[in-house]
Amino acid sequence: MGQEARSTLRVGRKSGSGTALLEHDALIFRGDLRLVIPFKDITTVAASRGALRVTFSGGAATFVLGALAEHWVERIRAPKSLIDKLGVKAGMRVAVIGVSDPAFRRQLRKRTGEIVDGRPRAGSDVVFLLAERRGELLRLRALRRRLKPNGAIWVVSPKGHGDVREADVLAAGKPAGLVDVKVVAFSDTHTAHKFVIPVAER
């Protein structure tokens, strides 16, 4: 979903050890201390001698990350867009089934004009399927037949609530002849899992 690393955190006079996570829109720390810093709240960010230092609306924090510190600075300064994380390129044939998220839709329209709602065209590059009920996962087998050999299906499902659990999404791939290869934080409420046709079957 994002990148993570063992780290120590200093916030004011407090310090602790745990795991730092770099998500697409926030810097998170879980351990002796807990902290979530949305990128939009960060005012300055810098790295020096393996330490990532940020100032934000709640004060200042230092994450000791080692060699990752410089890389995370660049990721925070120029985060990838959702559509980049989803691998959609200009001109790709895309089908969207049930996904109405406005931010996603805007980014998708800017990236490609080859978009259909509902049944994918044959030879689709990418299919996005909203699955908020387990029965919707049964569509994966039929959707696989509409993909290019190197195409992908992204299953968009609720985070940690509702009828569909992450385990249900992952389990649905194998009977449909697909393998899961990536997971992305789609929004504050939903996660996207990427499925592809196994290389040996393309």
In short:
This protein has 202 residues and is of the alpha+beta class.
Description:
This protein is α+β, with helices and mostly antiparallel strands and 202 residues long. It folds into two domains: 75 residues, Roll (PH-domain like), CATH 2.30.29; 120 residues, 3-Layer(aba) Sandwich (Rossmann fold). 18% of the residues lie in helices and 44% in strands. It has five helices and 13 strands. The strands form two sheets. A seven-stranded antiparallel beta sheet has the order 4-3-2-1-7-6-5, covered by helices on one side.
Task: Chart the SSEs and their pairings.
Blueprint: E1 3-11, E2 14-22, E3 26-31, E4 34-38, E5 42-48, E6 51-56, E7 59-64, H1 68-77, H2 82-85, E8 94-97, H3 102-111, E9 115-117, E10 124-130, H4 140-144, E11 147-158, H5 166-173, E12 179-185, E13 190-196
Parallel strand pairs: 8-9, 8-10, 10-11
Antiparallel strand pairs: 1-2, 1-7, 2-3, 3-4, 5-6, 6-7, 11-13, 12-13
Q: What is the overall pLDDT average?
A: 94
State the CATH topology of the largest domain: Rossmann fold
| Gap from first CA to last CA | 26 Å
Name the CATH architecture of the largest domain: 3-Layer(aba) Sandwich
CATH superfamily of the largest domain: Vaccinia Virus protein VP39
Gyration radius, in Å: 19 Å
Q: What proportion strand?
A: 35-45%
The total count of strands amounts to 13
Which series of helices and strands comes N to C? EEEEEEEHHEHEEHEHEE
CATH class of the largest domain: Alpha Beta
Placed side by side, the strands forming the largest sheet appear as 4-3-2-1-7-6-5
Q: Briefly note the structural class of the backbone.
A: alpha+beta
Sheet with most strands: 7 strands, antiparallel
Q: Write down the overall geometry.
A: elongated
Fraction of residues in H or I helices: 10-25%
> Any idea how many domains?
2
Helix count equals 5
Low-confidence stretches: none
